[in-house]
Amino acid sequence: MLALTQLTLSHFRSHKVARIETDARPVAIWGPNGAGKTNILEAVSLFSPGRGLRRSSAEEMARRPESVGWKLAAVIASLGRMHEVETWSDGGAARQVKIDGKPAGQVALGRIARVLWLIPAMDRLWIEGADGRRRFLDRMVMSFEPAHADATLAYEKAMRERNRLLKDQVRDAHWYAALERQMAESGHMIDRARREALEELAGAQEGAETAFPAATLELVQSEGEMPDTETDLREALAESRFRDMAAGRSLVGPHRTDLYGVYAAKGVPAKDCSTGEQKALLVSLILANARALAARIGAPPLLLLDEVSAHLDAGRRAALYDEICALGAQAWMTGTGPELFGELGARAQYLEVTETGGESRVERKDAA
Fold first, then answer.
1. Can you give the pLDDT at residue 308?
2. Is residue 236 part of a domain?
3. Is residue 149 part of a domain?
4. Is residue 155, in this structure, part of any structural domain at all?
5. What pLDDT, on the 0 to 100 scale, is given for residue 64?
6. Could you tell me which of 334, 287, 332, 286 has the C-alpha nearest to residue 310?
7. Tell me, what's the pLDDT at 358?
8. Rounded to an integer, what distance in angstroms lies between the CA atom of residue 301 and that of residue 294?
9. Alpha carbons 174 and 17: distance in angstroms, whole number
10. Would you say 287 and 327 are in contact if contact means Cβ atoms under 8 Å apart?
């Protein structure tokens, strides 16, 4: 089992103080727009590596106007063990983490809690830029391999330094060698982890009985091919220096990869599907990711589904709830009213969020 059983928010976004106790069932959260529902999901997302579902800075998460910093605390049941986890930021400083009373890096969070999310900003995933699709893909990869975060950070750091040399028109090969070695090592790890994750997702979709359409996924390069080996990538970077110098940036590597999706049953590219079909494909991928993780680690991940009913008709909404419950996943879901969760009945627990004078309040409710 993987579930968050206690959550405390202090000076986080619109929540001055909120204490929430839950069991392993799905958590349905309702309230008017702007009440602070998504802020709760964002808080849960911060018990995984990274900047959370909004990708905000630590300073942006602080409650206004105090801006004195914020703190989140949780008790997480993870594969037969209970962990006390804290994360906080003091006055805009970098986010810090403690696990069971000891300081820890963010990557350590990924070994305790695997967290997946789907938010309204992702509804345009298939029709916007490749950056968003890479982030979506890398979040899925990190759910399988938390160390993927370290590889992406190492690659991005080395690439930034190489790009600085390119912009400064530095031509001495010795300045590039170490950076390209680092980019090749971490870049190859990134590409391999992405491909392995797509294989697991494909396996989780194949043969699954679901109301949501399967997506065929593949990695494509914006230009040329991604080199197959670490050595090939290092050589490609060296050969591309003068071309990259003219462009002022690195044109070879996994940062040029895009995620291409197709509605499998129709053979239609995801970008050409209807809004409802695009949403259904995203839900399908999140569920496939959850099934694959459950098979790998023995428990489904935490699911964060913000305004999950948007673009889903009543039939698919009910099917989604059935699949979440069949998985045994603790899904934190938001909506504007209790009627959106009626199909869940006693299978879920319910929270109502209201807002008065800029402060959010959370109250436990009976079944919707």
1. 87
2. no
3. no
4. no
5. 85
6. 334
7. 86
8. 7
9. 54
10. yes
